Structure formats: structure tokens, C-alpha cells
Amino acid sequence: MTDMEKWLTLKEKLENSEALLLTLLEQERPEDAQLLLETEGIRFALSEVHLLRNALLQSMGFVEEELSDEVLETVAGGYGLPDLSSLFDPATRRTDSALNGSRIIILAGEVQRNRW
Predict the structure, then answer these.
(1) What pTM does this model have?
(2) For a FRET experiment, which of 17, 41, 58, 65 has its CA 20 to 30 Å from that of 11?
(3) CA–CA distance from 41 to each of 11, 78, 106 (Å)?
(4) What's the total number of domains in the chain?
(5) In which domain, by residue range, is 10 found?
């Protein structure tokens, strides 16, 4: 599975499963989120888990700035910001996506403050 296929697979899973998204957001540590994603058949490095967190928060309006160059450089092979940000862009996701749920937005606020 290529890096982009991995991200697209994750996007599809998160859009189709509110339960998975809620479980992911409820994880306390990046390592816990990483393990959960592995059980879904997607292996992410911890640096990618951090990118995922930032992309999810950014897509829900909790992070207004772009991802820093420092964060992007931590990913082996480097993902371009347009590739990553478009994965969770509210303008490109389905209107019936689990990413649009009110419970998800509440949990995103908690993640921003004190979780992975």
C-alpha cells in the first residue's frame, strides 16, 4: 500500500464509521491511536499520527493555521500539505460523513486540549 493509498483508506474508514472515529478521538496517547489504526489494517508512524490529529482538528475548525514545516519534515518521505489537507477538507468530504457529527466536534475540542 502506497502512502497516499494508506491515507485515502483511512479517510474512507473514518467517513464510513462514526464508531471508529469516536474511538480514535477517545485515545489518550499517540501510541494508542497508532495501535487502533493498526487493528484496522493501517500502519502509521507516530509522526503520521500527529499529522492525522492536526488534519482532523484543522478540518473541524479547531486549528486555523497550516501545518508547520517542522511537523511535515518529521514524516519520512514528506507529505505535501495539499495532499494531506485535502484528505479531511470539509469541502471535499461527503455530507453524510461521520466526520460531520456533533459528537465528533465535541471530542475534537477535547483532543485539541489534552489528548494525542
Answers:
(1) 0.67
(2) 65
(3) 13, 22, 27
(4) 1
(5) 3-114
